[in-house]
Amino acid sequence: MCNLYRMTKPADAVAALFRAKSAGAPNFAAEVYPKYTGLVVAEGKVRTMTWGFPRHAVSKKTGKPLKPTATNNARDDKLRGNPMWRDSFRDRRCLIPVTAWAEAEGAAGSMTRTWYSLPDHELFAVAGIWRPTDEWGAAYSMVMVNGCEQMADVHDRMPTILRPETWAVWTDGTPDEAFALCRTWNRPLVVDRTEELWSTHPMPSTTLQRRLPDNPELF
After folding, report:
1. Which residue, among 205, 181, 193, has the nearest Cα to 28 in the 3D structure?
2. pLDDT value of position 146
3. How confident is the model at residue 150 (pLDDT cuts 50, 70, 90)?
4. Enclosing H/E stretch for 41
5. What is the per-residue pLDDT for 185?
6. Which residues contact 90 (CB under 8 A, 6 or more apart)?
7. According to a count of CB atoms within 10 Å of the terminal CB, is the N or C end of the chain lower?
């Protein structure tokens, strides 16, 4: 499952590409981890939300509530039946702008980051769902499908990549229409195997990247 992704474009570039209303210049991390702030397109607006739905547990030793963990990935086969995802999938679907996502590769204790992106496309959309929470405000989760052949040696699941002509169907279509878009990506990926340790966890940095060109050609 995806626990790290990059989004290295400014909010106004995202707003222009997705034809959404901009909320100014929000702060968000260029590398997004669970419980970090990321950028999403929801209800026609570019918004910041926390990545991951809060999940609660209690300590086995004390019986006291623990700090909530972030459930940041939603399996496609659980969207319509699992109470954690069901209402959000039906009523609150969003687009997650992504530059690349990472998976851990290698032996336990020395895993490195392998990044996946689309050739010739600086920015693409991944299917997401969101909901308001008492803990973190608005929060989102990334919808995952079976992994493609190119990443089969690293992980068996991958984000649901959406083509531009399907963006509005995902956000505004019926649940059945949206669910039909939960398909494994069948086009080439760029695979970047790095020596950077998976456990490396830098402090959040905000995106101060160049603007995308007008009317960028995607896909």
Report:
1. 205
2. 97
3. very high
4. strand 37-42
5. 97
6. 175
7. C
Tell me phi and psi for residue 154, to 5 degrees. -115, -45
Domain extents in the chain: 5-54+68-197
Tokens (6 digits) for 144: 């995952």
- How far apart are alpha carbons 146 and 185 in whole angstroms? 9
Note the pTM of the prediction, 2 decimals.
0.89
User: Are residues 93 and 179 in contact, defined by beta-carbon separation less than 8 angstroms?
Assistant: no
- Structure-block tokens of residue 46: 């570019």
For residues 147 and 186, give the distance between their C-alpha atoms in angstroms, rounded to a whole number: 10
Enumerate the β-bridge partners of residue 65.
58
- Residue among 77, 189, 74, 192 nearest 124 (CA): 189
Query: What one-character DSSP code corresponds to residue 89?
Result: H
